[in-house]
Amino acid sequence: MYYYIYDEFVSEKKYERELIAIENRLADLGIAGRVARLALFKHADALIADELRRGHIETVVVVGNDRTMHTVSDAIAGHDVVLGIIPLGPDNQFAKMLGIPSGPAAVDVLSARNIEVIDAGRLNGGRFVTGVCFPKEHGTVTCDNRFTMTSERSGMIEVRNLACGEVQAGEIGNPTDGLLETVIAVEPKHSFFRRASGHKKSVVGSKEIEIDFPEKVTATADGKEVESAHFSITVEPMALKVITGKARMF
Amino acid sequence: MAKEHLQETIIAQGVKVEGDFVSEGDVIIEGEVKGNVKTKAHLRVGESARIHADVSAKSAVVAGEIEGKLTVAERLELGERSIVKGDITTQVLSIAPGAQVNGILTMGGGHPESSGHENTLE
Hints:
Order of helices and strands of chain A: EHEHEHEHHEEEEEEEEEE
Helix content of chain A: 10-25%
Order of helices and strands of chain B: EEEEEEEEEEEEEE
Structural class of chain B: mainly beta
Strand content of chain A: 35-45%
Number of helices of chain A: 5
Mean pLDDT of chain A: 88
Shape of chain A: elongated
Low-confidence stretches of chain B: 110-120
Oligomer: heterodimer
Largest sheet of chain A: 14 strands, mixed
Largest interface: A-B, 32 and 28 residues
Largest sheet of chain B: 14 strands, mixed
Distance between the termini of chain B: 51 Å
Number of strands of chain B: 14
């Protein structure tokens, strides 16, 4: 059975026509189901827990964007359900990585039900699926409690399960290898006589990552901000079943 | 089902690693490493790399600096700007003119018709 969770913003007038087309297509393909709408006092975890108590849900479908997906993926942790997405509006990088087109076309992908099992991650206890981006500061990265990485100058640090932010060609992680990729991008030193060559980004795979900054910074996980000076990140191998399209990027 | 994928590890210039670094896949080092480096696959040490560690790999191409024991199961190539201060153990060795090596070199196996005696240069 399908359970649709609509983000609050999809009620806006500008999405009305698209939403009607989506709902018609769901009915045409016979995959319409119960609908819940997120609101100020209606949180995804409570809605999903209620629905699971009521009966059998096979698939939870997010109708919204990356932030909606982030909230719902955390709420379904520990439950044996499949996650689907119907992306609406901007900020839909996760749907792009899964190969899910926007709007009514997403319904056909949902109906085809091509399920992949992928890793997820935990950032200071909260779940994320795509990755965590840190600001350009001097951080110390400790991987699997075995080695540390630091940079000569401030660099961008990312921890990827898939990708952080806007997806660049060839810069997507493998979400099925049981590892998270730590990426540190530091501009190499140039000298007058020698042009800097070689790789600009360090890439290391590990299961546990601790990142410490001298002061509090704001990291972004699946589009959601988390503020701290210490970040503890672990991989959840094969933790999430997702419906993907043919154009998926992994 | 998880896909078979041995991830490539890259330590770029400007990054420093300290500790025991172990990998299943290929490793490229262009930064600084202190500790131990171990991979079951191929290791490439770039010109800008400075490694103060014992290094172990299946095969390796070195263009930078290594201070420590270097153990390569199959083939080791030392480039013209490479500097190795430590003992080397490998099966097949290629040294370009200009490479600097200061340590004990131990080689063994190689040609199928060989008697398998170890060759040691000091």
